[in-house]
Amino acid sequence: MKVPFLDLSGQYKEIKKDFGLAFKEAIKRSDFILGKDVGIFEKDFAGYSNRRFAIGVNSGTDALFLGLKSLAIGPGDEVIVPAFTYIATSLAVTYTGARPVFVDINEDSYNIAVDKIEAAITKNTKAVIPVHLYGHPADMQPILEIASKYNLKVLEDTAQAHGARYKFSDGRWAIVGSMGDIGAFSFYPTKNLGAFGDAGMIVTDDEAVYKKMLMLRDYGRSSRYEHVTLGFNSRLDTVQAAVLRSKLPHLDKWNDSRRKNASRYNRKLKGLGSVITPKELGYARHVYHVYGIRVKERQRVMSELAKNEISTLIHYPMPLHLQEVYKNLNYKKGDFPVAERVAEEVISLPMYPHLKPAQINFICDKLKEATK
Ligand SMILES: Cc1ncc(COP(=O)(O)O)c(C=O)c1O
Which of 196, 224, 249 is the last residue of a domain? Predict the structure, then answer.
């Protein structure tokens, strides 16, 4: 049985009609740049995220980069970032001229280890970027407490976690992106909410950030012919907004399907000593952008699965502090042992809303054979 890593055709079939309509309307209007659908999607997504403002940009990387710039982060500043995430998180910091300062991760959630943040803070630290990696929320309450104690901005990297929720100690649930100063989303096609190309968005309650972002994404414009800040061309395309707008009402249902698929995987792999399955910590509502397991002898296990036409990937084989691009930061192997161990062991199994129970059963059977 062939199992692709990701198959979006089921999703496409399910809402083909809505896409068609949205596309047709956008093309008829031909308002391709900052057109009607951008405004509608921004409003819808701000509502979904429980935020006052949403500003569409052209990628998740730009959402992080421009978000940091709107918080006035730049040369001489330091920004705390987990050592284990997609490299876009730290690249966005580097683009501003600030320095990313890496912190190890928690072995259970694969998110930033909150008990290691304070030791990384210096007089130059201006912000922290918790990443809700794989769709599991970072432990936001202690992060917000530390940020408030040291007067740091908090920019949530929500690229992998659309619709995930975090529970505060008073029992209140908050959607990711609504807790820090800014939430930065990617709508890269494979994400839980994905466009038909590159797209991103920031959400915030801060009107000053909102106004700055409107300029930063559009050449630093204050009016048609006046440019008051060093802005960029980073607008969300109208046709992408039309796609995203038609998909948004389905996001929670698709996340529920991912959660069901994750439960089936967990059930089937239970008791298999050689496989560590993902955890959902007490404060978390995971949305399983990635279903990441850990095994020893990863290469052999992946090859066995590949022989059975099961596609897998690795998110991510090398932590950020060991990437060549960051050689100048002078980190070395051994600095972040948990990130390094997880990077050596993790495998992402196929995960998408329309994955079938029979496919999951097949993957688990083959995984059992490969790890026994
Ligand atoms: C955690 C994380 N941050 C940022 C990004 C960057 O998003 P994009 O690819 O839309 O620039 C991604 C996605 O690739 C990501 O997974």
Answer: 249
